[in-house]
Design brief:
By secondary structure, the chain is mainly beta. It is 11% helix and 53% strand.
Length: 579
């Protein structure tokens, strides 16, 4: 029989271990983490976006929502702002975070946004952050493997930690709409088409508590009956510019994934890709990846109906939005038409910003020597095929101006019917140009671009010019209006257009939008040299979950004329829908 003295060291060791664990548990439980702020300041306002003065340092994440109000009379931004009852100016959602700043998209604006206003987290976003903080705090406690007859306190601790570990995920934010569409198009000469299709409008973030998102808009046809070969309408072309897809980006993973119709985040100058991309962080500031898909966007300078693209890239990013930031991408790619190689090129994209004051952007593509496919034919030596450079300075919150340079070696192949919509303005000016934007009182903004262009067939240079004025909350009605005029002359053609747009939320559940214009375009790219168009959309939320949408389109050109209509009946979920 063993002597009791043998057990003394064992008992002492167990007692010390239990005492140490108890002290550690008490000290951990008594340590109260410093509360994170829930109220922030707006530091900068841009088109449809704002920046706030906090980011990952305040545990902010993409998808969180905030409300914006005016600065309190005492000038402070304390927690009490959330309960003052002040009228909300806007609702915003965080789309990107840095260490000490965050970029937010404006979901709904009821007033004018400006720097210095106060933004506070919505209640569901506060809860989401608390869950994340609790899960991180719980990681400080080990999951203890107990014996068959364990201590009840240890069992309780293990269950708590295991439950917290399963909740270490972001809060889902799911809302969207889907519906069935029926419509028709009638052209001059008695030609007619009927279509049955569908509409998806999704804003589904952190699906199932994961870091997968499904966002964007899509409108497509299931079936079509026609008395002849139908032409693509202006509405059809605009629908192709939308994006819809699944994306994955987690702060706990080096992988970044996108599948659907979307931009390549590291090189948006490549335009829309109908396919997918995969990126992986190979260092703290370095990301490499691949991409492939078709190119369905008719606003792309190198658009072709049967074109595909594939390539790889490397991206370097450093800095923050609240100080200085540098973002640079380099890659190689090839395009095919009818699965025959058409282009092999290198692409570059660089962006530097210093607070709100200065932004420099450059994109360029360098083609390898090739022989162009028919019908154009001809050979193209190695060299720059496209480049765009801009330098913008904003010395005051209400004044900004810039200098731009645009170059194309070959004729762009975008669809010219979209010129009057303003979606092709970036291609209409070649050579050097300057622009200015002025924010006036009463929610009025003026903008203008001027530049000189001279092509080989011109005896003298011509003045490219564009002017616009926009009104927000016109006559205190909430009506938004925009008027635009442009006159241009480029290598691929010249002309002018005038356009207008009106939009109004007549009630919380009814929205109306009108877009119209007149354009003249003389070019070898099209025989439709003159046209007028009007597109109207009415969107009505019926009851808690249903919606009805109707569209009317009228287009009158010297080579193409038609009338188009459609109606959509659908279901919406996840709260109020924002356009």
């Amino acid at each position: 029989m063993n002597s009791p003295a043998i057990y003394i060291p064992v008992v002492a060791l167990v007692a010390c271990l239990q005492l140490g664990l108890a002290v550690k548990s008490v000290s951990a439980r008594s340590a109260t983490p410093t509360p994170k702020p829930t109220v922030f300041h707006v530091t900068y306002v841009s088109e449809g976006t704002i920046y706030i003065d906090a980011g990952r340092n305040a545990d902010l994440q993409e998808g969180m929502t905030l409300s914006v109000v005016e600065v309190p009379p005492d000038g402070t931004a304390s927690e009490g702002v959330r309960f003052r009852g002040d009228a909300h100016i806007a609702e915003v959602r965080i789309t990107s975070t840095a260490d000490s700043t965050a970029l937010c998209e404006v979901l709904e604006a009821k007033g004018e946004l400006s720097a210095g206003q106060v933004a506070f987290l919505a209640p569901d976003s506060v809860e989401e952050r608390l869950k994340t903080e609790s899960a991180v705090e719980a990681e400080k406690y080990p999951i203890v493997v107990t014996f068959t007859y364990g201590d009840p306190l240890d069992e309780e601790m293990r269950e708590t930690v295991e439950k917290a570990a399963t909740e270490d995920s972001p809060m889902s934010n799911l809302r969207g709409r889907f519906g069935v569409e029926y419509g028709g198009t009638s052209e001059d000469g008695g030609l007619a088409t009927k279509q049955v299709g569908a509409v998806i409008d999704a804003d589904m973030r952190n699906i199932g508590g994961s870091y997968w998102n499904f966002t964007g808009y899509w409108r497509g046809e299931f079936s079509s009956s026609s008395s002849s070969a139908a032409n693509a309408t202006l509405t059809d072309l605009i629908n192709r510019t939308y994006h819809l897809g699944f994306t994955y980006q987690s702060p706990y993973s080096n992988d970044i994934i996108g599948v659907g119709r979307l931009y390549l985040p590291w090189a948006p100058s490549l335009s829309t890709i109908d396919g997918g991309y995969f990126g992986r962080k190979i260092a703290r500031r370095l990301t490499a990846g691949v991409f492939a898909g078709s190119t369905p966007d008719p606003t792309s300078w190198s658009y072709a109906p049967n074109q595909h693209i594939a390539g790889s890239f490397v991206n370097f990013e450093t800095g923050t939005f609240d100080t200085s930031r540098f973002f640079s991408t380099a890659g190689i790619a090839l395009t095919t038409e009818y699965w025959r190689v058409a282009r092999q090129f290198a692409f570059f994209e660089n962006n530097y910003s210093w607070r709100r004051w200065l932004t420099f952007y450059n994109s360029a593509q360098i083609d390898a020597a090739r022989t162009s496919p028919l019908p154009n034919g001809g050979s193209n030596p190695t060299g720059f095929s496209q480049s765009y450079t801009s330098l913008h300075i904003q010395p005051l919150s209400w004044l900004g101006f810039g200098v731009n340079h645009n170059y194309f070696r070959n004729l762009p192949t975008f669809d010219p019917r979209l010129i009057g919509t303003g979606l092709l303005d970036q291609y209409l000016f070649q050579g050097f140009s300057g622009d200015v934007r002025l924010q006036l009182p009463k929610h009025i903004a003026l903008y203008s671009s001027l530049g000189r262009s001279k092509v080989s067939t011109d005896t003298r240079s011509s003045l490219n010019q564009a002017y616009g004025i926009s009104f927000n909350r016109l006559w205190h009605t909430g009506l938004t209006a925009d008027l635009h005029y442009s006159k241009f002359n480029s290598d691929f053609g010249g002309g002018q257009y005038e356009s207008f747009s009106l939009s109004e939320n007549l009630a919380d559940n009814l929205r109306i939008q009108i877009l119209g214009g007149h354009q003249v375009f003389n070019s070898s790219l099209t025989s439709n040299t003159s046209s007028n168009f009007v597109n109207c959309i009415a969107d009505w939320n019926v009851g808690a979950r249903m919606f009805v949408e109707g569209t009317l389109g009228w287009y009158q050109g010297n080579a193409l004329s038609y009338r188009q209509w459609s109606s959509v009946l659908g279901y919406r979920f996840g709260g109020r829908h924002h356009q």
